[in-house]
Amino acid sequence: MSPTSPARRLRFGLPRRVFAQVLLMQVAIAAGVAVLATGLFLAPLSDQLDDQAMRRALAIAQTTAAQPRIAEELRSSRPVTDGPVQADAERIRRASGAEYVVIMNKKGVRWSHTDRGQIGRVVSTDPSDALAGREVMEIDDGTLGRSARGKVPLRGADGAIVGAVSVGIEYDSVRARLIHAIPGLFAYAGGALAVGALAAYLISRRVQRQTRDLAFSDISALLAEREAMLHGIREGVVALDRTGRIRLLNDEAQRLLGLDSAAIGRPLDDALGAGRTTDVLAGHVTGTDLLTVRGRRVLVANRMPTDDGGAVATLRDRTELEELGRELDSTRGLIDALRAQDHEHANRMHTLLGLLELEMYEEAAEFVGEVAGAHRVTAEQITEKIQDPLLAALLVGKATVAAERGVALGVSRDTELPDRLVDPRGLVTIVGNLVDNALDAAAGSSRHARVEVALRADGPTAVLRVRDTGPGVPAEQRESVFEEGWSTKEPPEYGKRGIGLALVRRLAERQGGTAEVTASPAGGAEFVVVLPEAFAVPNETMPRGPVPSESVPSAADEEVR
C-alpha cells in the first residue's frame, strides 16, 4: 500500500463528540491562561530583579564614595596595581559580592579594577554623568561584559568632585535568580492547569449527560428539525417556564389562542387573561384531554411538566368535531322523528282506509283536513312570531324532535323577533344549545313535560328565555353549569359534554351580554340570555319591555306544542 493511499492519510481536526470537543477546548483555554499568567508574571519579575541589582550596585557605590580616605588616596597616589586605592576597592568588592568596584579620576582613568591590566586606562563607558555630580543606575556592557551598574561622584573633604565610583553586579546572577524562580512558577502553573483540566473534565461530563453525547452538528440539526416540526404541525404547542411565562408558541397555537409572537416572554395570565384556558395551561386544572373554549373555538388541551419546572401544553381544535357531533345528534333526532312520523302516518293511513271501507266519506275528509292542518299550523305560528328564517327553521325542527321525545315545545305568546339580527348564526347556536339542554332535562321528568321558548326584541337588545319542567339547577351549581367540561349527563360516543352552555355564555359575553340560569315558575330551570346591540338597525316600532316572567299559553300555543 502506497504512503499516499486513502487508508494511510490521516485527518486532523476536532472530534465530533461534544464531550471530547468541550474537554479539548476547556483544556486548551486552561493551558493558554496558565501560559499567559506565567508570562505576565515573568515579565515584571525580570524588571524587578534588574531594578534590585541596579539599586544594590548604586548602594555599594554610595558606600564606597562616602569614605574620605579613598578621595585622599586618589589625589595622592598613582594608578598602579598595588596602590592603596586598588587595595580598598578589592576589599569592598569582596565584602559586598560585587563583580567589580572601579574608582576613576576626573579624566576617567581607572585607579582600580578587577582586571589589574585595566588599571591606568580610561573606562570603556561614559562617566560624564557621574563626574558631573549625578548618580546613575543602568544595565550596560563593559570590559567585563553585561552588568547592572551604579555610578556616583567621588568628592573630597572640601566637597569638590575628584573622581567617580562605578560598581557592577554581574548580570548573569540576575538571570540565574530569574531562572531559579521559573521552576516554582511552572509548578504553580502546572497545578493550576491540572485543576483547570479536572474542572474541564467534570464540565464536559455534565455537558455530555445533558446533550446525550450528541455532536454539535447533531444538536444543530435537531434544533432545525424541531423548529420545522413545531411550526409545521397542525397542533398548537405552548411551552412555559417555571415562572409561568410563555417561552414557545408555535404558529398553530397562535392561531387557536388568538395571540402573536409578542406574547412570548409574557406571563400566561397577562397574555390570555383569566379563564379556564389559562387555568388548564397553567396546570390549575388537572387531567387529560381537558376541554376549554377560546373565543368560538372548542379546544382539547393536554399538559406535560418538564424537568426544569416548566411545562409543555398541546392544543387541538375540536370546534368542527363538536359541530359535527351536534349535527349528528340533530340528524339522529330528525331520523327518530321521521321514523315516528312514518309510524304515525301508517296509523293515520290505516284509520283513513278503515273510514273509506266503512263508507264514512265525510269523516274521512274531516280526518285528512285535521292531520294536514296540524303541521301547517305549527310552522305558520312559529314563522309568524319569528321572522328570521334560520331561527324559525331551527324551532320547527326542534318541535318535531320534542314531540318524538314526549316533550311539548312551545313558543311564548309574547315572542316577536324581527329579521334584523346582526349575527343570526350566533343566536341559532345559543337557542339550539339551550333548547337541547332543556329537552334533555324535561324528557321523562313528568307526564306534562314542557319546554317554552320566549324571544323578544327590546329596542336593539334581544332577550331570550328558555324554560323547562325538568329537575332544575341547584343554586350552588348555577355558575358551574357554564364552565367547560361540567355536565351531569353521560358523554356521547363522539366526545365529551359540558361545551354547549359554555359556548352560550361565551357568545353572549362576546356581544357584551349575559347568560344566567334561575329557577323556573314551572319547577325546572329558566335560562335567560340578554344580547345588547343584537339588531343592525333599531326599529322604533319594535315592542319594548322585558319578557314577562309568566305567560298563559293560548290554544294556538298548545297546538304548536
TrEMBL record:
<dbReference type="InterPro" id="IPR016120">
    <property type="entry name" value="Sig_transdc_His_kin_SpoOB"/>
</dbReference>
<feature type="region of interest" description="Disordered">
    <location>
        <begin position="465"/>
        <end position="489"/>
    </location>
</feature>
<keyword id="KW-1133">Transmembrane helix</keyword>
<dbReference type="Pfam" id="PF02518">
    <property type="entry name" value="HATPase_c"/>
</dbReference>
<feature type="domain" description="Histidine kinase">
    <location>
        <begin position="319"/>
        <end position="535"/>
    </location>
</feature>
<keyword id="KW-0812">Transmembrane</keyword>
<keyword id="KW-1003">Cell membrane</keyword>
<dbReference type="Pfam" id="PF14689">
    <property type="entry name" value="SPOB_a"/>
</dbReference>
<dbReference type="InterPro" id="IPR036890">
    <property type="entry name" value="HATPase_C_sf"/>
</dbReference>
<feature type="transmembrane region" description="Helical">
    <location>
        <begin position="20"/>
        <end position="45"/>
    </location>
</feature>
<keyword id="KW-0808">Transferase</keyword>
<dbReference type="InterPro" id="IPR013767">
    <property type="entry name" value="PAS_fold"/>
</dbReference>
<dbReference type="InterPro" id="IPR000014">
    <property type="entry name" value="PAS"/>
</dbReference>
<keyword id="KW-0902">Two-component regulatory system</keyword>
<dbReference type="InterPro" id="IPR033463">
    <property type="entry name" value="sCache_3"/>
</dbReference>
<dbReference type="Pfam" id="PF17203">
    <property type="entry name" value="sCache_3_2"/>
</dbReference>
<feature type="region of interest" description="Disordered">
    <location>
        <begin position="539"/>
        <end position="561"/>
    </location>
</feature>
<keyword id="KW-0597">Phosphoprotein</keyword>
<dbReference type="Pfam" id="PF00989">
    <property type="entry name" value="PAS"/>
</dbReference>
<feature type="transmembrane region" description="Helical">
    <location>
        <begin position="185"/>
        <end position="203"/>
    </location>
</feature>
<keyword id="KW-0067">ATP-binding</keyword>
<keyword id="KW-0547">Nucleotide-binding</keyword>
<dbReference type="InterPro" id="IPR039506">
    <property type="entry name" value="SPOB_a"/>
</dbReference>
<dbReference type="InterPro" id="IPR003594">
    <property type="entry name" value="HATPase_dom"/>
</dbReference>
<feature type="compositionally biased region" description="Basic and acidic residues">
    <location>
        <begin position="476"/>
        <end position="489"/>
    </location>
</feature>
<dbReference type="InterPro" id="IPR035965">
    <property type="entry name" value="PAS-like_dom_sf"/>
</dbReference>
<dbReference type="GO" id="GO:0016301">
    <property type="term" value="F:kinase activity"/>
</dbReference>
<keyword id="KW-0472">Membrane</keyword>
<keyword id="KW-0418">Kinase</keyword>
<protein>
    <recommendedName>
        <fullName>histidine kinase</fullName>
        <ecNumber>2.7.13.3</ecNumber>
    </recommendedName>
</protein>
<dbReference type="InterPro" id="IPR005467">
    <property type="entry name" value="His_kinase_dom"/>
</dbReference>
<dbReference type="InterPro" id="IPR004358">
    <property type="entry name" value="Sig_transdc_His_kin-like_C"/>
</dbReference>
<dbReference type="InterPro" id="IPR029151">
    <property type="entry name" value="Sensor-like_sf"/>
</dbReference>
